[in-house]
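Protocol step 4 of 6: structure prediction from sequence.
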Amino acid sequence: MSSAPAVASTSAAAGRATSRVASIDIFRGLTMLVMIFVNDVGEVKGLPWWTHHAHAQQDVMTYVDMVFPFFLFIVGMSLPLAIERRLKQNPSYGALWLHVGMRALGLIVLGLILANADKVDPARVGLSGAAWALLGLIGAIFFWLVPSRDTRYARLYRAMRIAGLVLLVVIFAIFRRTTESGNTGWIDGSYPEILGLIGYTYFAVALLYIPTRRWLWAPLAWFAALTAFCALLAAHHIRVEGRIPLYVWPFSSGAWASITMAGIVTSTIFLGAHRWRRLREKMLLALAFAVAMLAAAGLLAPLGISKIRATPTWCLASAGASVLAFMLLYWICDVKSRTGWAAFVKPAGENTLLTYLLPDIYGFLTALVGFTYFETNFRAGMPGVVRSVVFTFLILAIASLLTRWRVRLHL
């Protein structure tokens, strides 16, 4: 295996790494669009089976089951660029690891708020679940709001940050739920929602990537190792007694980390420093990677195909599809510079965290005031689908407006 520095030696690669890559933002924005739609349309009755997540007992995957993997893949695509940018600003690895840890923790905290909202015991907390979650999200927005560059508002943003942190601490401190045995329980961390899973996976992959980032082939080797681990677990050649908490073993079965590592491999192919500089070479490498994953997915199909069970075939098929989708977007957006068609999703791709939280904020607000008109009157069939489409584009419009007003969240 040959090796190459992860920091580009050519000015072209360095310039690309420090600027936003249009295809990545648009990929992320399109994924956000689909995520908002499928989450909302999932509550609509009378639709075909493929418009919902497949059940754990089924050996099948729908397009809905690929949304989460696309998120994980784009995390991997962005990670090498973000780390390179961080090290250029501050070459301290201590500062880098602190940032990685705090970013992962932030995602986990947000995920725990969303996952525990419906578990709040109002009698013990004094607040409904919707009110508790809204206070938590307000605190998160205050704490992670990107400050204005205008120094006149520096004190205001500092005060908001402090208030946000205090609010986050308070809502976690007062949280109480009733356990199955009838006792009082605190935050349930067994399922930290999608944001929390992304946080744990981001940290796990960083543990592997950062120490080996100077070796060109390391991401591919880590991807193969994680996929093999996932397959061995699925085949029961490796047995783990009980469930190991994610805060102890953030790799879980290796499934989610393998998809994220596939994103790092793809980022290395298109944006890394290596000898394959021509577009044709990059495209052929990426195509070979995608085809190999899809072929491996077919070979491992006897182990099952399921998002819920996180089988290796689901991982490989999703990662392969992600590579092919990115190749197309890279050709259109970065090679041909045609990005106008995606203007409506680009803000969601650039301001992803806030966009992700907007549907939940809407849900908690309507629950708090008891507004159920749309859910009551548009619950089934085509009217429900139309409701979901309108809701999706409304959320994207709000995200675009907030982004234009420079209301951004950044962990």
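Step 5 (inspection) to follow. The chain is about 65% helix and 0% strand.
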